[in-house]
Amino acid sequence: MEQGRFISIEGGEGAGKSTQIQALSQKLDSLGLAVKCTREPGGSAGAEEIRRLLVEGLAGRWDATSEALLVLAARRDHLTKTVWPAMEEGTWVICDRFLDSTYAYQGYGHGLPLDSLDQLHAFTLGAFRPDLTILIDLPIEDGLRRAHSRQDRETRFESLERAFHERVRHGFLERAQQDPARFIVLDGSQSLEQVSDQMIQAVLSRFELFVEE
Prior knowledge:
There is one protein chain. With 213 residues, this protein is an alpha/beta fold. It has a single domain (6-206), classed as P-loop containing nucleotide triphosphate hydrolases (Rossmann fold, 3-Layer(aba) Sandwich), CATH 3.40.50.300. The chain has helices spanning 17-30, 45-55, 64-88, 99-109, 114-125, 140-149, 162-178, 192-206, and strands at residues 6-10, 35-39, 92-96, 132-137, 183-187. Strands 2-3-1-4-5 form a 5-stranded parallel sheet, with helices on both faces. The radius of gyration is 17 Å and the shape is globular.
């Protein structure tokens, strides 16, 4: 059995990742592929418990180092309990956020040394990386306006100052520039349909998936 692929979807607050993950999942499913959608932090029982600690409560609940360690603990549980078993069964996994969010938020956003995050990921993931990362980029104002329109309890990161979100956006774009073979960057200020179409075409091309006319 051929091993499944791992695709991560990245972006700042309000980037529309959930909508695009659903569109991509439906497309891959229509091609006869087994697909699993998941998220970080979260995606396994233990990781979901850690998620609540990270995304709820006051902005200053954790310092940057504590936050990163919680994220990596959740990631390890997610990989061992959900992602890797699914891929071994031939399932394509689409993940809402992965390691690039850690670099963007805890590294660029909060100022943790990037080489320290490199070491943490080497310990936690080994050489494992996404087969493809799709970054949905859009201006900070647009993303925060979308995020604030949602009615949920996961507002800890949204409540951080604008300068933090600017650093996060810069971090994502710099990560993409450093690894162009893995990243596809899409303009999230377009309509949801335009972003979906471009994303799906990019995935089909990257993995040489053919659609019957």
